[in-house]
Amino acid sequence: MTNQTSFPAGTILGYPRIGRRRELKKAVEAFWAGRIDAAELETTAAGLRSATRARLVELGLGQSDSSIPESFSFYDQVLDAAVTVGAIPTRFADLVGDDGRIDLAGYFTVARGEGARAPLEMTKWFDTNYHYLVPEIGPSTVFSLASDRLLDEFLEAKAEGYLTRPSIVGPVTLLLLSKPSDDAPEGFRPLDRLEELLPVYAELLAKLADAGAEWVQLDESALVSESIDVDRATTLEATRLAYAALTAGERPSIFVAAAYNSLDDALPVLVDSGVEAIGLDLVRGSLPTHVEHLGETVLVGGVVDGHNIWRGDLAAAYDKLEALGTLTFNVSVSSSTSLQHLPHDVTDESKLDPRLVSWLAFADQKVQQIATLAHGLSGGRVAIQSELDAATDALADRLAAPGVRDGDVRLREAALTEGDFARAAYADRLEAQEAALGLPFLPTTTIGSFPQTGDIRRARARFVKGELSAEEYTELMRAEIRRVVELQEEIGLDVLVHGEPERNDMVQYFAENLDGFAVTENGWVQSYGSRCTRPSILWGDVSRPAPITVDWSVYTQSLTPKPVKGMLTGPVTILAWSFVRDDQPLGETARQVAFALRDEIADLEAAGIGIVQVDEPALRELLPLKQRDQPSYLDWSVGSFKLATAGVRSETQIHTHLCYSEFGVVIDAIRELDADVTSIEAARSRMDVVHDIESSGFDHGVGPGVYDIHSPRVPSVDEVTELLEKALSAVPERQLWVNPDCGLKTRGYDETVESLKNVIEATNRVRTRVATPA
Ligand SMILES: Nc1nc2c(c(=O)[nH]1)N[C@@H](CNc1ccc(C(=O)N[C@@H](CCC(=O)N[C@@H](CCC(=O)N[C@@H](CCC(=O)O)C(=O)O)C(=O)O)C(=O)O)cc1)CN2
Ligand code: MET
Ligand SMILES: [Zn+2]
């Protein structure tokens, strides 16, 4: 298996850019707050890039063999590609100079909006918890090479003595992930603009070649997804056209990387296009059995999981490379995806159990694994046998460790029956709930969280450091709850929440309170822009040692005669936003989490909480990219939600909440959840989702959001009224709830209070209008 071209033996598709202590997040937020200027932010970013290169060499990548990707971004790699080709919507035209360029402040304005000017829409990146910004492209978008960042970063590295590999989202994926601009005619698709886009990519490649780049990486993960609204034949033809054009000119060698699943029928198209190297995700995707005309094309086996933290089965990874070696002599090794989904370094986790640590590999350890496998590709299995054996031993230790299998949890699973998944008929429940709750027409509520203020976070940080006692911390959170309850009563909401101040994160908080999970101190991963999460590690069988939320909810209910909604995160979302064990099917793990939630809900009900919301914002996100995998996913995901929620009495009202649009795609699954009330994001898309609700005949309670919480903008009473009227025209009166799009944790208090007041005033207007005979 010798590598006959100069593609590096081992590489990664991308590296975390937020910084091991979130230096980039802090610098970017300081820039937004006006505490540092653009020059200082640039300096911090350059320092991070420089540290990354040095670290990657230290971990075993080559300094001058193009194995280090230039994969930095200030905010998002899709936005970067859009900015590079000059695809900035016309509402930002004043930010664009005569040369088509936009400065750093302008770049952030496109990402985050400003005043009444909406930012680019944000949506999930494939089946991950990373969000990208959706470019808007229309018939009149003018493409031009409008940024030298990628070139400058390559030159910056070169000046430091590195030969790196510039990396950018490829042209087909850029267009497939874009949406038509507002001025585009019906039926227009961004992909229609491919031919005009290609010369810009060609120009960029020529410049990179001129500067001395030997390889460039084009990320074309959209080619693996079947969830994109363009038919496959058109996508394949676009791919053929794009790479025929890009291979024709002056350019570095081209590495097309496709992460998150198999390329399937796009692989032969790429092979025939003459690109020099193709990256395959061999963790999620499967090994191609036979590929024609491979010639000298390098197949880069993504055998090290870039999306999970397990050290895993290194020998099996090497086996896959050997299997790839039966197709071609030109095999290299890589991560299956960019490592941007992983925390930096497991050696930063001094508080984790060392035994658990021995089973883990964060980004830095993955790089070392890749360096090992690359060594094996040249030296043969014997050269790395001891490393393979060590990983095999660690895996065996993990599978046999106490807690990985818990007899009681297994017994409970074995005893499940159909009846555990079903509630009484909806009509009977509705009647019982209306009688028990006595809510007005158009009941108003919020999605759960209120602003997570600096004070709340600082109090928690002091509690974690031991500077506050548990009692002091609890009292501070209770004081916050009292404020939030008073505020909701004053504003006039009908169903109150406690505001979730005690939660660092809606998933991590539950992980900290369940057995089977571990949490990290420094394991930050970028979710979008400067926002990060610390995904928990679900390593063993899950159980609930004690009630988690009951005291908080009961305390809140004691403060008000209005119904307080208990607030839990659902099994699918807990899995989606954690690093999950890979030694059993996800459905099995989801059922264990569901049992824990079922017990929690029973305790809430017994303590007098009449409404419980179980959030499932990640239901859409985990939907498999390949249609063939979707039915079984929908089966276990819906099943786990029902298992969690079906144990309650008819008069107990179960809510669920989903955000991130595309409801058309999961509406059938939402119906099957059988929640009494479902709140969904709708304000951002001007309530268009009600058409999906109407045409699907969804007949349970539904709260399409009337307030877009992603922006600080306060919606006016007129605006909310209009959204409510639009909803009422499609959804029967008795079904409709009034709520924001999502939780308020990222918002400030001022705009939150003003917005909620407007929501209530609009609701009262509509109530009066409906009650007044025409
Ligand atoms: N896991 C997850 N995924 C999700 C969401 C979500 O809520 N959770 N929501 C959607 C959107 N994604 C989001 C992801 C992150 C955040 C977010 O607000 N993250 C916070 C961190 C939240 C957190 O973990 N907070 C901790 C730690 C906060 C912190 O940084 N503390 C300071 C100290 C306190 C201070 O001085 O401010 C520190 O450690 O340095 C806490 O509250 O305890 C951030 O990046 O700023 C929001 C939305 C989709 N995916
Ligand atoms: C991302 S969905 C968020 C739901 C959660 N209950 C909140 O209000 O923050
Ligand atoms: Zn939400």
UniProtKB/TrEMBL annotation:
Positions of Zn(2+) binding: 657, 659, 681, 742
List of residues binding 5-methyltetrahydropteroyltri-L-glutamate: 22-25, 124, 531-532, 577, 621
EC numbers: 2.1.1.14
Pathway(s) of this molecule: Amino-acid biosynthesis; L-methionine biosynthesis via de novo pathway; L-methionine from L-homocysteine (MetE route): step 1/1
Function summary: Catalyzes the transfer of a methyl group from 5-methyltetrahydrofolate to homocysteine resulting in methionine formation.
Single GO BP term: methylation
Superkingdom of the source species: Bacteria
Keyword Protein transport: no
InterPro entries in UniProt: Cbl-indep_Met_Synth_N (IPR013215), Cobalamin-indep_Met_synthase (IPR006276), Met_Synth_C/arc (IPR002629), UROD/MetE-like_sf (IPR038071)
Residues in Cobalamin-independent methionine synthase MetE N-terminal domain copies: 11-325
Domain Cobalamin-independent methionine synthase MetE C-terminal/archaeal: 442-764
Enzyme class: transferase
Highest classification ranks of the organism: Bacteria, Bacillati, Actinomycetota, Actinomycetes, Micrococcales
A GO MF label: 5-methyltetrahydropteroyltriglutamate-homocysteine S-methyltransferase activity
Keyword Transcription recorded: no
Catalytic activity from the UniProt record: 5-methyltetrahydropteroyltri-L-glutamate + L-homocysteine = tetrahydropteroyltri-L-glutamate + L-methionine
Cofactor(s) listed in the protein's UniProt record: Zn(2+)
Binding locations of L-methionine: 447-449, 500, 615
Binding site for L-homocysteine: 447-449, 500, 615
Active site, renumbered: 710
Protein name: 5-methyltetrahydropteroyltriglutamate--homocysteine methyltransferase
Similarity-based family: Belongs to the vitamin-B12 independent methionine synthase family.
NCBIfam families, alphabetized: met_syn_B12ind, PRK05222.1
